[in-house]
Amino acid sequence: MIVRQIWTGNAYRNFNYLIACEETGEALAIDPLDHEKCLAKARDEGWEITQIVNTHEHDDHTGGNRPVMEATGARVLAHQGAGKSIPEMSVGLSAGDVIKVGKTVELEALDTPGHTMSHVCLLSHTETPGLFCGDTLFNAGAGNCHNGGHPVELYETFAGQLMKLTDDTLIYPGHDYLHNNLQFTLDREPGNSSAQELLDNTFDQDPADALVTSLAMEREVNTFFRLNNPEVIEQLILKFPEIGSKPDPKTVFLKLRELRNSW
Fold first, then answer.
1. pLDDT tens for residues 223-258?
2. Spatial distance between the Cα atoms of 27 and 47, rounded to a whole number of angstroms
3. Can you tell me the distance from the alpha carbon of 9 to that of 85, in angstroms, rounded to the nearest whole number?
4. What is the pLDDT of residues 43-75, one digit of tens each?
5. Which of 140, 211, 214, 252 has its CA 20 to 30 A from that of 133?
6. 231 membership: H or E segment, kind and range
7. CA-based angle 201:203:207, to the nearest 5?
8. CA 58, CA 132: separation in Å to the nearest integer?
9. pTM above 0.90, yes or no
């Protein structure tokens, strides 16, 4: 499996992705908002885009569908519940569906509600797994739930699916919010030396050459994975004394998401 992360350079700080089969040159485009860059990269690599996957229905992820379709004839796949909001969609995805790209690539669809209720992540069936997670999981952060989502569903996605993935899983998010997210982690857990070191080391990082984190790293620096950390809980009790002295992980997650909304 060949992965190309495409930095759009837009105000929303989107990442687009091309995933290609090295044997056949067939490629899949994930959320190809910047259709010109995606088409140019495929052309430069000698690849043929045959499929588009939208992780969810927001315009900054679906806006490039039509020009990519017109240029390549690719079909659009998305969550089975997104048909009314993604008019180009021709294939609805359910949990466990496997998308094949060429002869060598298989991607499993995960039903991951929270940011929206019709969101999918893609998990590669490779020796080192890759998670293409749209706006569900960001480097050092979690998606918001402002436009059609729900924080309880997002917690269930994290607790029931993402936290159970293997440590070597590589994380490919839909946006670059790394620095802001690390700063939020440090606001909630000032003693997190791993988050501080990563912030220092990536301060001048060019998003066009972004660090690809692993789930092991996310467990260290992403406050939404650190729901049992004593410092995170202590700081949260100071802010929300009504949660009591021993809040459960769900309460911690929901209060962190509430704080991040206005941070």
1. 999 999 999 999 999 999 999 999 999 999 999 999
2. 6
3. 25
4. 999 999 999 999 999 999 999 999 999 999 999
5. 252
6. helix 230-239
7. 105
8. 16
9. yes
